[in-house]
Each structure stands twice: as C-alpha cells, then as structure tokens.
Amino acid sequence: MTTSLSRLPAALLACAALSAAPVLAADASVEARLAARGMQFEVDSDGDYKVTYSYKQENRTQLVFVSGTTEQVNGISIREVFSPAGQVGADRIDGTKALALLANSRSKKLGSWELSGDVLYFVIKLPDNVDGAALEAAMDIAAETADNKEIELSGTKDAL
Predict the structure, then answer these.
(1) Measured by CB atoms within 10 angstroms of the end CB, which terminus of the chain is less buried, N or C?
(2) Helices 28-36 and 132-154 meet at what angle, rounded to 10?
(3) Are 53 and 62 in contact (CB under 8 A)?
(4) How buried is 59 (Cβ within 10 angstroms: 0-12 exposed, 13-18 middle, 19+ buried)?
(5) Residue 67 clears pLDDT 70, i.e. is over it
(6) What are the distances in angstroms from CA 156 to CA 59, 81, 159?
(7) DSSP string of 55-97?
(8) Burial class (CB in 10 A: 0-12, 13-18, 19+), 88
(9) What are phi and psi of 151, to 5 degrees?
(10) Sign of dihedral through CA atoms 151, 156, 157, 160?
(11) Which residues 6+ apart lie within 8 Å of 115 measured at CB?
C-alpha cells in the first residue's frame, strides 16, 4: 500500500500537467494549409483554428473558425468553417427572423445559418481534401457573410 500511495502525487502531477497543456487540433493539415496561405491563427481550447479578419475601412473585425476535427459522411471527410454573426437573446432573433434566416440560407450557394446554443453562425461544410486556396475562400465567404449579418442584426456593434 505504501508503494501505490507514494506514486499518487506523481500521478496527480502528471494529470495536472496534461490538463494544463494547450489543446492541439486533431488534424495538422489545417495548420499547413493556413500557414501556406500566410494566415495568422490560434488554436482555441477545443482544438478549432481561430482567425480574426480585419476590415480596416469599416473599422471592424470578424472571427472565423476552422474545425480541428472532421466528420465522416458516407466515407467523405467533412470539415466545417464557421463564423458567429449574432446572439439569439441579445439580437432578438425571434421566429420571424429565424424564418428569414432559413429563406436566406436557401439563396446561399455555399453555407447556411445554424444555431449553437445562443449563437447564430454562418457555417460552410467542405470536403476536407480542398486545398488551401479553397479553404481560404470559404473562410472569406463565412467572415463576410457573418459580419454583414451582425451589422444587420445589431447595427454598429462589433462583438463577434
């Protein structure tokens, strides 16, 4: 019993060190594609790649995320690009606005509106084998679409 108790502090320290380590994205291919395009990014706490777009002329910024993991759909690896555009409560997104978002999604050739908790996102789902240029183009579309919707919903607020 003494032997296992003496190992307990070391085991606790090892667990603490692992939990304090930064979370790494599950797929380094995203990092390589972003780096090849010269994009600055961070990896957030759940492994997604976070990029901040700056619209200097409008004095605005917009967050865009590339999922650090993929999902399989009929043997195709799908990666999400998503950008927050509003908050249901703060931006008073009610049933009427939600129906308008659904109608707006119909007109989009790439991407659609989705809710996750209280946050409205513009989400693009791509086959993961797209090259860096196509990934960046999807990020550009998501950022611009989400920022335009944020302006529409909240006026001059630039929270996302």
Answers:
(1) N
(2) 90
(3) yes
(4) exposed
(5) yes
(6) 10, 24, 9
(7) ETTTTEEEEEEE-SS-EEETTEEEEEEEEEEEETTTTT--HHH
(8) middle
(9) -60, -45
(10) positive
(11) 88, 121
